[in-house]
Amino acid sequence: MKILAKGSDPSELKFTKRMNKTPNIVIIGGGTGSYVLASGLSDSKVHISMLMTMVDDGGSNRVIRDEFGLLPTSGIRQAILALSKNKTVLRKLFTYRYHQGGAGLDGMTFGNLFMAAMADIMGSQKKGIEETCRLLQVKGDIFPISYDNVRLVAEYIDGTEAFGEHNIDVPKCPGLRIKNLKTKPSAKINPEAEKAIREADLIIIGPGDFYTNTIANLVVDGVVTALKKSKGEILFIANLMDSCSETPQYCLSDFFDDLKKYMPLELVKYVLVNSNNNYPKSALEAYAAESTYPIKDNLQVKDINPDVKIIREDLISDKVPEKQKGDSLDRSMIRHDSEKLRKEILKIVGLAPRL
C-alpha cells in the first residue's frame, strides 16, 4: 500500500535533489478550483503556468462568445486575478460585477469586458491576454489550453446528448451519468500550453467541475500526448463534493473509473484527498437541496496504479464565500483552502518538510 501518512517520503527527497532551479508547476483546469489553488501558490518560490479550459458558454461568457465572437474570458480572468501582484484600483475594477442594466450587462464582470476590448485593441485574443497579464502584473504564465472555438458535447448513459458547457452543468435530467465527453469540432492544443506541460516538474489536475473543467482539457488533441512525454509528475486533487449534473452520487473511485477513459492512470503519481468531513452544516443543507453531497472516500491504490501515493489531509476552507451582486450562476460554497493546498504541494516538490 502506497498511502502516505505523517513522515518523510523518499520520492520527495529525490524530487528535491533533482531540482537545481525553481520548480515549474503547471495547473490544468478552470474555474474556482484552479483560482483557489493558484492563489495559494502565487507567493511561493515556484513558477506557475495555468492552462485554462476555454469552453464556458454560460452567464457572461455567452455574451462574450455570441456578441463579441471571442473565446470565453472568465477562466482566464480568474487565473489572472490568482497570479496578479497588482493591488491598485485596477484589480478592484477587474473583479467588479455589474448588477444593473440590460443589453447583457447584468451579471457581467468589468474584467471580461476589459479583456474583450483589449483583444480588439491588440488585434488578437492571444495578444490581449498577454497585455492584460502585463498590466495586472501577473507572476507566472497563463495560457488557454486551445485557441480553437469549440463547444463541449456530453453523451449520457441513456444515449441522449447535451451540447454546450452550460447545458452540461445545468442539465435537463440531473442525476444522469455522463458516458463520454468530446469537443465539437475537435480542438488542438495551444503550442504554448504543450511546451509548459512538457517542461513541467509537477502537473496538477483539478480540483474543479470534473467534466467541464478537468476532462474538458484532456479531450483537446495533444494534451494527453504532452502528458505522456512530460518529465513532470502528475498530482490529481480530488473534489470535495459530487455534482448532480456531472458526477451524481460518485464515490472517489468513480472519478478514476471515468478518468481512465481519457488518460492512462499510470501517469498519476500523487492524489491529494481531503480527510476532514466537518463541513459547515448550512452549506451541506443548501447542497442537499440540490442533490449534491460530500464525496465518499473509498479510494485505494489498486483503483489507480501500484506506485501512486494517496495523501489524505485536512484541505477544506472554514469560510463560506459570499455571493456577489448580479451573479446569477450557482457557485460552490464548500471549497478547498488555498493555504492548506499550498503546504501539501510544497511538500511534494520538496520545498517544505512532511512532518
Automatic annotation (TrEMBL):
<dbReference type="Pfam" id="PF01933">
    <property type="entry name" value="CofD"/>
</dbReference>
<dbReference type="InterPro" id="IPR010119">
    <property type="entry name" value="Gluconeogen_factor"/>
</dbReference>
<dbReference type="InterPro" id="IPR002882">
    <property type="entry name" value="CofD"/>
</dbReference>
<dbReference type="GO" id="GO:0043743">
    <property type="term" value="F:LPPG:FO 2-phospho-L-lactate transferase activity"/>
</dbReference>
<protein>
    <recommendedName>
        <fullName>Gluconeogenesis factor</fullName>
    </recommendedName>
</protein>
<keyword id="KW-0963">Cytoplasm</keyword>
<dbReference type="InterPro" id="IPR038136">
    <property type="entry name" value="CofD-like_dom_sf"/>
</dbReference>
